[in-house]
Design goal:
Helix content of chain A: 25-40%
Strand content of chain A: 15-25%
Helix content of chain B: 55-70%
Shape of chain A: globular
Oligomer: heterodimer
Low-confidence stretches of chain B: none
Distance between the termini of chain B: 39 Å
Structural class of chain A: alpha/beta
Largest interface: A-B, 46 and 32 residues
Radius of gyration of chain A: 21 Å
Mean pLDDT of chain B: 93
Strand order of the largest sheet of chain A: 1-14-13-17-15-16
Number of helices of chain B: 15
Order of helices and strands of chain A: EEEEEEEEHEHEHEHHEHEEHEEEHHHH
Number of domains of chain A: 3
Chain lengths: 388, 303
Amino acid sequence: MNMMTIKEDKDINISSKIKNFLNPDYVYIPIPNNYKICVNTNDDIYKEDILLSSNIDNIYSPVSGKIIGESDNLTVFNNNVKCLVIENNYEEKLRNNRPATKYINKYKKDEFLDLITKYKACNEDFTSNYKTILINGIDPDPYEKTRSFIIDAYSDKLLETVDAIRTIFNINNTYLCINNNDTNNVINLSSNIGTYPNIKLKLMPDIYPLGFREILIKNALSKREINDGVLVINIEDIYNIYNVLKRKKPISEKLVTISGDVIEQPLVVNAKIGTSMADIIKNTCKVTDDKYYVIVNGLISGITLNSLNSIYTNDIRSIFLNTKDESRESECINCGLCNEKCPMHLNPKYLITHKKADRSKCIHCGLCTYLCPAKINFKKYLGGKDEQ
Amino acid sequence: MNNNVYVRSNGSIKTISLTRIAFLLPLIIYGIYKNGIYLYKEGYTNLFGLFKPIILIILGAFIGGLVNIIYEYVIKKRKDKLINVLFSSFHIEWGIILACISSINTNILIFSIITFIILFLSKLFKIHFNIMSIIFILIYIFHIILYNSYSYLNVYEQSKELSLSFMDYLIGRGPGGIACSHIILLLIAIIGLYFTNNNKTNITISSILTLIILFTLLSIFKGISISGLLFDNNYLFIMTFVATDSYTSCYTVPGEIIYGILVGILTFIFYFVNPIIAPYIGITIVSLFNIVIDKKANLLIKN
């Protein structure tokens, strides 16, 4: 296995409790192209009301409050986006309380697919023919703890949902992969999983980048299982699916790791989707230094944001405020470490020196950059996830 | 801006150099004993002879460091910390290795001047061949020109008629460079470097295996001892520390293996021309083609 044990910075110890930040003054809902705005300025709205709709799905309000207009000075992954601005009235009022579905495994396949699509609970393609379900409960970045906290907080719901998906799609081979160093979750799941004999718990070693989908599939499953078709679902999507199947509840809040070397006490926060990152940081943690970079989705594989003037969306797993690594990039020493350790068996040196080389297989895990003794920033040359 | 890096492994040119030097230390200590302390104790040399091995080793490191200091502080006008400047390239390690592979009979002035000039030039210009090999070949040529000889035998070994067994070579009684003769310590260094991932072990193994095969055939045909063929001229040490020079050797697995095999074959061929500089000529030639070897070797594997 071409993977590495990453020594975690001793200064980044995540608090064991989830902190809630569910009452932002304003939330900002990005308006994608091809979506119709279903509300008007000054409208009073309820939580989970439809704000935007397309032919396929809807975007719902994460809070109750008042529409105060549109803003176009906020960003999502460094791209300027037009947003619908909602002033929160902190009442969390719902238009109508939806009854909970008792047995979520009783849904028919079509009903399931309709709900998942309508509420955008998961982006996976459920329509193909699969023989195996692989649930990814491993955090992609060694400094992230979001998935670990989701499993810790909602293990019973997650297992119920996985079993429901398995039943609905009639797939017998189901694995739930978690990190074997994640002691709490190993104990927690081991004691609960007995109720679901068809779900197998797979303990994976704490090595990077095992949380990446492509790498996990290769390491958790046999070649036959891979060839027969694998449906991979992240643990956060399982929780979203649970909410949709149980209460038809759209994604209005989610967990995010907030960490980095300028954060006094790193923690996992439950925040409303659409909150500005600056608000989340200001209200949940103490920043010890003003000179920092904002990085989302991992210190190794993540991308740097231009500022905190960005919106917290469903795609964000972690926010880091960190000082930059100041090592000077020197000439390649030809050591071959990048080539030797690439989890995709690519040759990063070749990829960055040959413009026509096929970079499509690169998963942008950043391991080559992390390892390089000459401190070459391969990420700069190979491009990042935001550039895909 | 979008693809900065915030965490790095602690692996660097400095850690690689220091690890490699650490694995060289037992060999150096034994070399100081064998070529200095022992000779002095037995009355074969004077006080200068006692310190000569350590002087050469320190001089090698000093020249490597000096080249880096002049280049970074004077030419590039950088203001980095001294420790970072000293280990901004492998020059200190190269200087030490050069002292290790040099004979105890090496003239200190020739060693210093050639090492300094070539190491300095290698900083100024992007040189695509193995620097250590070139320096050693030049040191050898200058000794031949000035003294008409360059022998690995120290004064004690010159005074005796050596008849060494395989075991003698293993425990360092064979002739060789200042810190190259103890085969057991060298094997420990190879294993250590392999496990700490600080050496291109594929090159070492493939080149040594090639040499073993070729020298075995030669020893069968000529009826001479294979131990002498393999151990007399530092070949194992050279394949471990010189042939694996990071900058100028291959870096892909198939490339490293082919590189090692080619070095082994060329060393064997040039052995018949001059056994002392044979591996250095082989390494210099193959290092010129390292990029091509990497490319072709990988194409070969893919097809």
